[in-house]
Fold this protein.
Amino acid sequence: MLVDSHCHLDFPDLSRRLPEVLERMQQNAVGCAVCIGVNLEDFPRVLALAEAHQNVYATVGVHPEYTDAEEPSEAGLVELARHPKVIAIGETGLDYYWHKDSPEWQRDRFRRHIRAAIAIGKPLVVHMRDSAEDTLKILKEEGAQAVGGVMHCFTETWEIARQALDLGFFISFSGIVTFKNALAIKEVAQKTPLERILVETDSPYLAPVPFRGKPNEPAFVRHVAEEVSRLRSLTLEQVADATTANFFNLFKSAHRPV
């Protein structure tokens, strides 16, 4: 069994054909998917998907790209995360690619998410783009190692990965690892301890080879796992077993589907 640890099933590209998407997951042995919350306004539909499907889980958070979204409070995040189908706080983090000029509001929002995760005892889903130094610094300052989490859609160097691993975080690989020129990410996929690797799609974005340029979906996480297995000289079954075990080890409130 495989798990897509990060996708957006509520986004129109996937939600309008959800039965087909879920069927293809089953056909490709993708047993679970996590529908990621990106703002509070749309969280009810994320949660509704998780409630409606045994093998779908949710997270709650406000993505750093959402500048005009309702601002989360620590207490508010904790309350929403009490739901049994909400397995993590996020997507949260820092994105200096889109917001270079005044990132202080991002750092403040990020800290609130970390404090909520610690208060509720659930891990973090961290977005990090052009912001590795500050992201790691804030995780350390706020004691995020108490709950851990995942550095989702990892695109940084091995040195950054090593620092995240030292904080107890997992490294998640998306379809980018299948891209021919993604040499630094391939190196990270080879060096990260197998027991700390997750796989994801971030669908409907970042479709892996051979679907690059097309809408992504959770079934395609198989191609991510196949590339990781190739890079590590392992079988797909070994990578699938390891990453699935890792998922349930990190997200302890999630349960294997029966």
